[in-house]
Amino acid sequence: YGVVGFDNTEESMRPVFAFAKKMGIEVINTEPGFDDYSLIEKMVREYDVKVAVHNHALPNKYALPQTVLDHVKGLDARIGGGPDTGHWMRSGVSPVEGLRMLEGRLVHLHLKDLDAFKDKKAKDVPFGSGKGDIKGVLDELSRQNYDGTVSIEHENPGENMNPSPSIRKGLEYIQSVTTFWDYQELLPRSGGKYSLHGWNHYGPGYFTLDEKTGELTGYGGMGLLWYSVKKYRDFVLELDYRCDDLATNSGIFLRIPELVSGDGYIYQSFEVQIDDSQKGKWTTGGVFDSEAPSAMAYHETGRWNHYKITNQGKRITVELNGKTVTDWEAEPRGKIREFFPEGYIGLQNHDSRALIHFKNIFIKEL
Q: What single string gives the DSSP state of each residue in 157-198?
């Protein structure tokens, strides 16, 4: 909500914060004309509504990101920057560099692309067609693991009666450079924290979750952390994993047919294996006890690996670190007595001798 102005008094601020709270508004954008933010901080803590300090172009007070940082330093983390990348460009600030400066203090982003840099008369253009390095901006947001809102505003005097075509063209560009477009993140985030909402654990051992980084760590076992919100039929599952030791043993279970209350899932759902110490159909990249990988593509112990697993119909395709290592038309084999056309996703914790870590878990239904 904003950009909204208020005086440095409770009488001026309180109606704005009360309105935001009642409406479910998460962020108030403002450009304070004063330097003492203690009352803003009091309101933020009382109403649990964030405040983003907005900018306009020079000579605006907050045109440069360092000015924003100087004002919010030491304050509640819910008070930070709400930059407009277009105004940054008009002031000669690279949007990517500005975002890097605000890392950890970025509350909201106003995304624009302009036809010129460091030019007060620059005009808005569709994303990707101007000088704003929109892909670089998105990459930087991803690097920072930003989970706030990105707002779009398109202001071009020649298009103000109908900005929709330019906005649509810009969104098509964003879609073309976004890896996880149409994916769902299975570790949900809210208020800057990850949670295990929707996940359940069965069996010995357990997983811990770092709420800040979204990293799961499995201890003990053999147990299963499974996503119980819904069953999936045809899908692409992507995630990162890391092994603490060569003997780390884990796996990703596909299409678990029923709510997990016993060990039956072991014989009814295929497991894409993680175990660098084994060979053949029991090693990393293969389908455990059923189909061996065609190549070894895992990184050395301690590095993050990326799995892309496609399960479409009976076909299971496994890509490890960008290389296809398994492409198999599934059939009952090995420990699998029968398998099913849809089911739940699960992550295995095997033992505490060599821990397993997971993060960035995304799924796209086909």
A: TTTTT--HHHHHHHHHHHHHT-TTTT-EESS-EETTEE--TT
Average pLDDT over the chain reads 96
| Model pLDDT for residues 26-82, shown as the tens digit of each residue | 999 999 999 999 999 999 999 999 999 999 999 999 999 999 999 999 999 999 999
Q: Which tokens hold the place of 302?
A: 């301690």
The DSSP secondary structure of 113-149, one letter per residue, reads -BSSSS-TT--B--TTSSSS-HHHHHHHHHHTT--S-
Q: For the chain, how far is it from start to end, CA to CA, in angstroms? A: 36
DSSP-assigned letters across all residues of 216-261: EEEESSSEEEEEEEEEESSEEEEEEEEESSTT--EEEEEEE-S--S
Distance CA 266, CA 261 (A): 12
| CA atoms of 366 and 360, how far apart (whole Å) | 19
Asked whether the predicted pLDDT for residue 238 surpasses 90, the reply is yes
Are 209 and 326 in contact, with CB atoms under 8 Å apart?
no
The 10 Å CB-count burial string (b at 16+, else e) for 48-65 is ebbbbbbbbbeeebbbbb
The whole-angstrom distance between residue 120's C-alpha and the CA centroid of its chain comes to 34
* Spatial separation of the C-alpha atoms in residues 197 and 259, rounded to whole Å: 16
Note the maximum CA span of the chain: 72
Q: Please tell me the pTM assigned to this model.
A: 0.83
Q: Is the dihedral of CA 340, 345, 348, 349 positive or negative?
A: negative
Q: How far apart are CA 255 and CA 342, in angstroms?
A: 5
- Sequence-distant (≥ 6) Cβ neighbours of residue 46 within 8 angstroms: 17
Angle in degrees, CA 359, 102, 57, rounded to 5: 140
